[in-house]
Amino acid sequence: MGSKSLEILNQARRLLLDLSCRNRLLSIPLKTGRFVNVYDEQASEVYRLLVTEKKALSFLPGKQKEQDGQDKEGEEGADDEIGVPIPNEDEIESNGTAKRHIDLRLQTALSPEGLQRRLIDLYRDSEAMIEEQGVNVLYLALGQLKWFESESSDIERFAPLILVPVELSRRTVSDRLILRWREEEILQNYSLSEKLLAEFGITLPSFPDEESLVPAEYFASVARVVESAKRWEVLPDAITLGFFSFAKFLMYRDLNPESWPGEKKIHGHPLITGLLQDGFAVKGDPIPDNANLDELISVDRLDHVVDADSSQAIAIETVRKNQLLVIQGPPGTGKSQSITNIITTAVMDGKKVLFVAEKLAALEVVKRRMEREGLGDLCLELHSNKTSKRAVINEIGRTWQLTRPDMAKLESILPKLERLRSVLSMHSNTLHEPYGNTNVSAFRAMGALSALPDVPSEYSRLSLPDAPEWNADVAALRRSLLQQVVSRIEHIGPPCQHLWRGVRRETVLQIDLTGIRDVIARMNEHLQTLLAEAGRLASMIKQDVPDSTTEVESYCVIAEFMAKAPEYLDRSAIKNPAWDTDGDKIIKLVASLQRYKELRNVEPLVVDDAWQKDFSDVRGPVASHGTSFFRFLNGSYRRSVATLRGALKNPSTKLPRNLLGRVDQIIEGQRILKEITANEEYGRAVFGSNWQGADSDCEKLHAIIQWVDEQQAVGLDADFREVFAVVQERPEALRSTVDSVRAKAAAFCAARSVVEAELRLDWQESFNVIQQEDVPLSMLRDRGATWLIRLDSLSEWNSYYLLRRDALENGLSPIVTELDSGRLTPKVAGAVFDHAYYAEIFRRIVKDKPNIARFDGALHNTHVNDFKEMDKARLTLAKYRVLHAHFSKMPAFVGVGPSGILRGEMERQRGHRPVRRLLKDCGSVIQAIKPVFMMSPLSVAQFLEAGAVEFDLLVIDEASQVQPVDALGAVARSKQIVVVGDSKQLPPTRFFQRMTNGSEEEDEEVPQDIVQAGDMESILGLCLARGIPSKMLRWHYRSRHHTLIAVSNHEFYEDRLFIVPSPHSAAAGLGLKFNHVPDGVFERGRAAVNRVEARVVAKAVIEHARKTPQLSLGVAAFSIKQRQAILDELELLRREHPDLEGFFYGHESEPFFVKNLENVQGDERDVIFLSVGYGPDENGYMAMTFGALNAEGGERRLNVLISRAKTRCEVFSSITEDQIDLERAPGRGVAALKAFLSFARTGRMSLAAPSGKLEQSPLEESIRRAVESLGYEVHSQVGIAGFFIDLAVVDQELHGRYILGIECDGASYHSSRSARERDRLRQAVLENHGWIIHRVWSTDWFQRRTDELRKIQSAIQKAKNIAQSEEVAAAPIVSVRVSASDDAGISREVLAISKDERSSELTAVIYEEAKFAVPKKEIHLLSPRELGDIVHRIVSIEGPIHEDEVVVRIRGLWGLSRAGARIQSAVGNSVHTLLTQKRCVRSNGFLSIPGAPVKPRSRVSTSSSTLRKPEYLPPPEVQEAIMVFVDAGHGARREELPSAVARFLGFSVTGPALRELIDSQIDLLLSGGKLILQGDWLQKTIKM
Question: Smallest Cα–Cα separation from 1202: which of 1073, 1374, 1011, 1061?
Fold first, then answer.
């Protein structure tokens, strides 16, 4: 990892270190209510009494001095120090010590009331710290160093020197508080040591252990090292009781990269690099949330020790696949249950687990669950509060002596369970698997057939052979088509005469008729208007009334042309036929006129008369000489020029250069003028008065021509002009009328198009016209009027002509033909279709899967019951498997290596190693004995030396409250991390830091510490941000009534939780209850409490203790000070009711508490009282300040607060939701509070659609109707989110209760991800919540409805009997236990092994000397083969064996006292033969069988004396013995091995030769790489 990541790590470390004077370990505040200063006592004597003699001490109040010099008790109510009594110097012991220094009473200067208040506050806060954090921070500080920050500083600082962990305790609320040593490690001031070294270069002396600690000597040694500092002083008898915390310093020290071994550097750990910088690459979801768990997890691998729902099982299996994972666990979703399974499966897989939680309660709930399941022996609690050296060693030793668990015959259930699971899953899958593409399963088919009315017998066999090939959409369409045909068929008339013929609308529903009526009426209205306006137009243009929109448009065109006729038009001339025959001539005439005018405009300087002259003679000379340089020398040219100049209006004007062109233009103009003159009469005939010869207005003439051309283009001819000639309407009137007609026509056409689209009208069939524009308007007017009158007959036509045709084309001819014939009545046609459709598919399903037809509900119930029993037995087997895996890795009792050290510690009576050193020296052995360490982030830093102990799996619980830097130490010791928490719950908080740091008072209304905490990132958030995948637990178990979690589920989890519905209403003592405290007053300012409400809550606690003490109780306040007020009120009431004290010390696993919203996470109780506290002040003013809820993330705190109850939650509030003004108090936390108070008070909440709610199936509807026919009220799909009861029968006698739940094997059943969840866990959870469940199998209902209904009626009656004999409302309510395991308490015997017996735990096998019958011949007479076989047999039994020992053994077999040369030679030859044949191998004189394993053997009882000689000890056997000890002892020191190995091999004395042999074999193992030397320890080489 690069320098960047190291920098990030160091930045995180610096956040942990506080060497400022805010740290009480460096500067004890002089004035604070959180300390008790002790005066006139000797620290050494206090240490002796408290620690050495382990005596309890009490406190004395101070005394005020009166004017006469006499002391008097302090005044009541005084909280400041008032003075100490004048000591009686006469009270001196014989050793010179004053009696007041050894009287077991510590003198204070506080008044009696002030002392009591201080001690109670310290007592409460220390208890809270232990309960929540598992950390004791209450210390009696002995001795202080007075120091100054600089030579110029005048501020005295006082730092404690020796810190003795203590506890305040009392038996009852009326007893005084006493002080005891916690028998935990006595500590030096680490922060002071770091401060002095870092800033002053002073090194404090080494701190001795408690056995050798003498306070006076330590104080003196400190005084010596600081004597050079001016004004510094050691105060040996300064004694203070208060809160001090080393937590952050220990973590700071732990994260120091220099503290970690080179190969295990913390900043090189892959998990650390991923969290701090790189992130984690996500490779997809290893297990989707909708995975079939039975396919994913075999029965053999289903190693859950407690029940796990599908969301838990997916998380567990994901972890087991070595994935990093974040588990989001909303309140009550079984986080501890999941953690238990994760831990135990990891142990089963041979992993070492570190379980970390900030809160002690989180560790203890998992530990209790492990103990309840008989697996507590796996766990070693190393929380800071549970680390007594003796207790730790005793617990390890007790576990080490456990016997092997006997799994008996439990393994034999696996194949049976696998078969049963397969049978049950097959039933569910078979029942719900759709056939082909039909989307119809057997369940759906049976349900539909069950819900159908009776079908006439003659049609029960009617079939739809293609139905199994239809997909769902096709089937629905065909069913719809048939239904529409049927719905009107009896009312249809002759089609050809039908009013609605031609309508092609696909469907006509009643809800459509209003729209159709509107569009037809609108069309009729527009038609009437159009006809009227078109008639007016026709009158204006002298035409008949139009009868089609085509005619209307033609009239508009006519009128439009009339209107746009030029106003100067000669109406008589326009009738001239020439306009129809001589169009080109007219156009040519006007074109010539236009050209003439253009030419006249070109020569504007020529006089008018010039256009009458003949210029033909002029043109020749100009053309011939006009371009010549000598043109003026030519006479004809000069004459022509003179003639042209005479034609100019100004003869002096210079002639144009292009003189010839100008002459040609004049000549052309003269020619055109002649043509115009020649056509004078013609022009006047066609243009009338608009023709003025050469002076005619060309624009007017062109306009007339264009007008005529446009008419002709649209088909208007002479007839139009004839009419036009006589029409006298003004153009404006015509245009206005045309616009009106066209607008009305457009409106009509649009309306008609709407009708056409609405009805999908075929105009030809309906009106015998091809185009709708040609529909006779009069006919349409009459038809439209009739349509409105006979609108109800539209569906008749549509159904018969359109739908019948479609039905025939879509395979419905068997039914439609019957309908058409009249043999099948329409009213049963739909049922006939459904019966034919589902029956055809069901027959096909049964043909493929005949087991459905053979289904027997009674037999299946037997399978289910057998499965339940075996599945619960599987949980038990998993526990035994875990214990077996645990035992298999249990180290042997050996006297070498870490095992030997641990044995030695177990045998000590005192002077034990500190836990940190013990774990360093014996970590691997302890992990083998206790594979699960349970620790807090602090205890990880406190007890695990960097790099000394490693874990395969780290599980962090309540991770939303753990700061990332606090978790890094645990992460760095692990290979895999699983983070469990809830991002919707509390973030890390500094709530408990106020005990050891911070100011004396805190402003509740501006919770700065809370706001800062909300901004702090948790390890949960960091893991999510770095890409670690997450899984969410979905089943909510905690709440026995759904109202207890409804608000949280809706407000914070988007209704995603599976909430088990309750069969009871809140009237049964369950659920949410609102207690209004209308006279409550919130004291604003420094008090910030509601004493009235606190008193009411305290009284309610007393009532609970009196009436329902069997239910555990917790009180949660919205603020710290309200909690304090409740405790104060309760303290007084408890003193008044001493008979109830048993309740407050009962419920060991769930003791009574009073907490605030910052420290209640992780707790659950049967009953929770919530004290809102906030309300109007004494003036009635309601401030919109709600403490932490106003801050960002306030809703997370509220979520925690309102989700703690299991059976009942009572809200005590001086306000209602109406008093909360969200405009004045924006923020999600306050809004959620308003919603919660509203729901608590009214029971109503604006909920979205229930999450996961399924539609009721036809089969369930069939059952519901049948049960209702018996006179019962039945509700369907009962529940609010995720978890719904199919049918629930209402109790007719007890309001607000369901008497019976009916579960089918429908969609809810099939949606379960496993057989365990489907066939056992779901029903077990329901029954644990008070339901009585009756199961109805769909096949039974389909086949034997009457019998099944009788069974339901019987089940209802049985449920009634149960209800009458055991009224739920009055019955004690017990907590729900999710796991159905009944045999949780698996016990293992603890062996009583003596000191000598323990060494026998690791024993070698007894050396077996070869003894067998031999031939009755002399040895030298045996054939080589015979003797070779004997030698081979000896080597097979005793190998490796020295050759000389073989001779000895052969001699012994023949009973000879010695072996001569012949015998030795014969044996030697046989050995040579065996070696040649490779039946034996030889190494350094030792013979063995090839490939035979070498086992260490004990020679303690051998008869051959040579076997106990070192030279006859096979080196491979010695090596194996060495490896056995190194392995069993988890390492060994070299000097330990010779004696241990010698004894192991049966040697009572380890002589020099034997020691040398063993040492040489150790060297060979080291050089051969089988052993490595790590520090002082020999370790086995780990094979990668």
Answer: 1073
User: What are the tokens at 668?
Assistant: 């052309």
C-alpha span between 927 and 683 (Å, rounded)? 126
Residue numbers of the chain with a pLDDT score lower than 50: 1, 67, 69, 73-78, 493, 992, 998-1016, 1247-1252, 1368-1384, 1390-1400, 1584
Q: According to the model, what pLDDT value does residue 96 have?
A: 63
pLDDT of residue 417: 93
DSSP letters along 798-820, please? IIIIIIHHHHHHTT-HHHHHHHH
Q: How far apart are CA 1559 and CA 1169, in angstroms?
A: 71
For 255, 356, 1244, the CA distances from 252, given in Å and listed in that order, are: 5, 18, 51
The H or E element spanning position 161 is strand 157-169
Rounded distance, CA 1463 to CA 1447, Å? Answer: 8
Bridge pairing between strands 1532-1533 and 1577-1580: antiparallel
Q: What is the DSSP string of 712-760?
A: HHTT--HHHHHHHHH----HHHHHHHHHHHHHHHHHHHHHHHHHHHHHT
Q: Provide the whole-model pTM.
A: 0.76
pLDDT, residue 847, reads 92
DSSP letter for 198, please.
I
Helix (H, G, I), strand (E, B) or coil at 143: strand
Q: At what angle do helices 1345-1365 and 1258-1268 cross, to 10 degrees?
A: 60
Report the b/e string of 1530-1566 with b at 16+ CB within 10 A.
Answer: bbbbbebbbbbbbbbbbbeebeeebbebbeebbebbe
Q: Distance between alpha carbon 1189 and the CA centroid of its chain, in Å?
A: 24
- Return d(Cα 251, Cα 240) in angstroms, integer: 25
Output the CA torsion 155→158→159→162 (10° steps). 170
Please give the full DSSP string across 1184-1199, using - where no structure is assigned: ---GGGGSTTHHHHHH
Handedness of CA 1004, 1006, 1010, 1012 (dihedral sign): negative
3-class state of residue 1291 by DSSP: coil
Q: What is the pLDDT of residue 1209?
A: 94
| Phi and psi, residue 485, nearest 5° | -65, -45
Average confidence score pLDDT of the chain: 85
Tens digit of each residue's pLDDT (9 = 90 or more) over 658-711: 666 667 777 777 788 888 888 888 888 888 888 888 888 888 888 888 888 887
Half-sphere exposure of 965 (CA within 13 A, CB side): 21
C-alpha dihedral, 833 to 838 to 843 to 844, nearest 10°: 110
> How many Å apart are CA 1420 and CA 1463, to the nearest integer?
6
Tokens of 1: 């990892």
Helix or strand (DSSP H, E) at 160:
strand 157-169
Angle made by CA atoms 693, 694, 698, in degrees to the nearest 5: 90
Element (DSSP H or E) covering residue 1155? strand 1153-1156
b/e sequence 367-377, b meaning 16+ C-beta within 10 Å: bebbbbbbbbb
Q: If we measure between CA atoms, which residue out of 1499, 1488, 1308 comes closest to residue 1403? A: 1499
Whole-number Å distance between alpha carbons of 1493 and 1405: 13
Give Cα separations from 965 to 190, 323, 961 (angstroms): 20, 22, 12
Helix/strand/coil percentages in the chain, nearest 5: 50, 10, 35
The full DSSP string for 309-374 is -HHHHHHHHHHHTT--EEEE--TTS-HHHHHHHHHHHHHHTT--EEEEESSHHHHHHHHHHHHHTT
Strands 178-181 and 157-169: antiparallel
